[in-house]
């Protein structure tokens, strides 16, 4: 679908995979009668044990920041709610369940609001859209989250989120890997319920960026007036190419260039930041969700992008991969090495 710059309320219909996080949730097992090919996804039925940040504290910190972040609505009536991770992947079956809707958020825009006066400060950008990507998984990719931000209005546009099932591990190793990675967040069950192989994730992602007219399935085609933003070079310089080799896939053309937000941060503010948490602390942006849960990290990086745009930063490509040699060229003289 073509993207039109419309109001935030009308954009709610654009995203069928709006994202955030579900923290320490308790999940019912599958029904014993459900089939393997078409499982009935179970959902959390209680409050999470660690929601991290109430709306009241969010509002208080946001007021200290200035124009970028607005307090979510109804700050005095209820606490901040974690995101339903089944919903982020288009698999929530409880949208008519009042109890579930009261406990979990289904609207990522609640965590990425923009004040109109902040958007007025944004400088003209060379790109129209930023795709904030933050992969999880050191051995193989376990999570592929993307948050799409309008480069001119700073507004949240859409999101794509998939849990990724490793292809070169035994089932026992996968269980150990997931228990260690996602068990601490209480989302290991949703990972097991929804994870799909990396090749299928890329097919669905290509449908998503194609639907937004950001990419055409042609040999060597790059993104159309959009670019990935990552917090470091690891995601696209190292991990995606490694995963493509493991999954026996050719590296897609849309992964050939990206924006390392650390380099933009260094050149704009004239100070180094070792990572996302350092940037958020220095910019006095409160974190939302759990650090190292990919969709939450992508969301928090997107909030840094919003803030930098409001501060007047020009956000542009920092690295390119040459397909002929596979060498990466870094475009900024001053960069994080």
Automatic annotation (TrEMBL):
Against InterPro entries, the record matches this protein to: 3-5_Exoribonuclease (IPR051274), ERI-1_3'hExo-like (IPR047201), Ribonucl_H (IPR013520), RNaseH-like_sf (IPR012337), RNaseH_sf (IPR036397)
Q: Which CDD domains match?
A: ERI-1_3'hExo_like
All copies of domain Exonuclease, residue ranges: 129-314
Q: Which residues form the signal peptide?
A: none
- Alphabetized UniProt keyword annotations: Exonuclease, Hydrolase, Nuclease
Q: What GO molecular functions are on record for this protein?
A: 3'-5'-RNA exonuclease activity; nucleic acid binding
Q: What is this protein called?
A: Exonuclease domain-containing protein
> Source species, please?
Brachypodium distachyon (Purple false brome)
